[in-house]
Design brief:
This protein has one domain. With about 220 residues, it is an alpha+beta fold. The strands form 3 sheets. The protein has a 5-stranded mixed beta barrel. The protein has helices at about 5-20, 25-35, 140-145, and strands at about 50-60, 65, 70, 75-85, 90-100, 105, 110-115, 120, 125-130, 160-170, 175-185, 195-200, 210. The longest helix is centred in the first third of the chain and has 18 residues, at about 5-20. It is elongated, with a radius of gyration of 21 Å.
């Protein structure tokens, strides 16, 4: 059976889009977290690899998210500019920034802390802003752009079409982590003594640690 060129083109585009989503950071992080067994911190033994779920608790002063001004333990920001080319266009990344403060995940009377170099994260981007034609950016957005070497206007003084996305881990928020854990004294993990003993979460056997606050990843129905 022969297909019309339009149908073949649609199939190819759909396949490319499905592949792009399947291998996107969001999909990879969620897939690994959702399929991993969940353990409470009380169940966790040193040397095991599993998914834990805990409540974010800042150690010391929290971070301030640059766009929204929220107190947080971790933030992710993605800023893109729309680039026009004839009748079409595309979004170009201007800034992609992820910053983590010192925080633990509390599960009952136990806590865990993340200590990994290769963190694969997906933070829900729940604050979104935009600027462009007849839509001036706030002073806060202008300041953030300038800090990273970008302007909100063209050399002719027109607003660029820009979108700004921000996601944070806030104190009290449920968050999931997948990695290998080892119990250590608080001072060994660089924490105040009142934490006594904490689970230090590092990368799995492949050196990767997965982190997300997506609601799908903090469900405990896979508990063991």
């Amino acid at each position: 059976m022969k297909y019309a060129p339009e149908i073949i083109f649609a199939i190819v585009v759909a396949t490319i889009l499905m592949g792009a989503y399947f291998f996107s950071k969001k999909a990879v992080v969620k897939r690994n977290l959702k399929k991993a067994p969940h353990k409470s911190l009380r169940q966790f033994r040193s040397g095991e690899t599993a998914r834990i779920i805990g409540t974010v608790e800042c150690v010391g002063e929290p971070l301030i998210a640059p766009l929204s001004g929220r107190n947080c333990a971790h933030y992710y920001i993605h800023v893109q500019q729309h680039i026009s080319s004839g009748k079409s266009g595309h979004w170009k990344t201007l800034i992609e920034e992820e910053v983590s403060g010192t925080f633990v995940l509390r599960d009952g009377d136990k806590c865990a802390i993340i200590k990994a170099n290769d963190i694969k994260s997906y933070i829900v981007e729940d604050k979104k802003y935009a600027s462009g034609f007849m839509n001036d950016p706030t002073e806060n957005l202008k300041t953030y752009l300038k800090k990273h070497g970008h302007d909100s206007e063209t050399y002719l003084g027109f607003n660029k079409k820009i979108r700004y996305h921000e996601g944070v881990l806030e104190p009290g928020e449920q968050t999931a982590v997948l990695g290998k854990g080892s119990w250590k004294k608080a001072y060994e993990a660089g924490l105040p003594d009142h934490y006594y003993e904490v689970l230090v979460i590092t990368g799995n056997d492949k050196g990767k640690l997965y982190l997300s606050d997506d609601p799908d990843t903090v469900k405990k129905e896979f508990s063991v």
